[in-house]
Design goal:
With 142 residues, the chain is of the alpha+beta class. Helices cover 35% and strands 32% of the residues.
C-alpha cells in the first residue's frame, strides 16, 4: 500500500493567563483554557477529536444510505495521575445513532457496526495515532 503524507498544523497563542486561541491554516479559531471557565480544556479537545474524527467517518458512510434521525457520539475517559504522569485511561466511545424506519434506514442501521469498526481499525487518524502511540518531539526556538 502506498503511503500518503499531508502536513497538518495549528498555532496556539496565549492572550491572557490560562487563556489561549488555537488557529488553523484556514483561519478557524478556537478558544481554550484551563477549565476555570466555559472554554474547552486541551484534554476535552483530545476527547472531542476522538469523537469528532470517528463521527465524521461514520456519518459519511452511513448517510449515503439514509439521513439519521439522531446522531450523537459521546467520549468518556478517566484522567489519572500516577508514577507514569498525567494521562487518560479507559477511553470509551459511545454511538447513539438512530435511522428512520425505512428500507434505507435499515441498510444504514445494519452498516453502522461495520462502519464503527472500520473507523476504529483504519480510518480515524486521531484514534489510530493514540492507539499506535506516536512519539512527540518538542523543540524550543529563540
Amino acid at each position: 500500500m502506498a503511503s500518503e503524507s499531508v502536513h497538518r498544523n495549528v498555532t496556539v497563542e496565549r492572550h491572557a493567563p490560562g487563556r489561549f486561541t488555537i488557529t488553523n491554516s484556514r483561519g478557524g479559531r478556537l478558544a481554550i483554557g484551563t477549565g476555570g471557565d466555559v472554554d474547552f480544556t486541551p484534554t476535552e479537545l483530545l476527547l472531542a477529536a476522538i469523537g469528532g474524527c470517528t463521527a465524521i467517518d461514520v456519518d459519511i458512510l452511513t448517510s449515503r444510505r439514509s439521513e439519521p434521525d439522531a446522531f450523537e457520539v459521546r467520549v468518556d475517559a478517566i484522567k489519572v495521575r500516577d508514577a507514569d504522569g498525567n494521562r487518560l485511561t479507559d477511553i470509551e466511545v459511545t454511538f447513539r445513532i438512530a435511522f428512520p424506519a425505512t428500507a434505507q434506514g435499515d441498510e444504514a442501521r445494519a452498516l453502522l457496526p461495520v462502519v464503527v469498526k472500520k473507523s476504529h481499525d483504519r480510518l480515524c487518524t486521531v484514534s489510530r495515532t493514540i492507539e499506535i502511540g506516536t512519539p512527540i518531539a518538542n523543540r524550543v526556538e529563540p
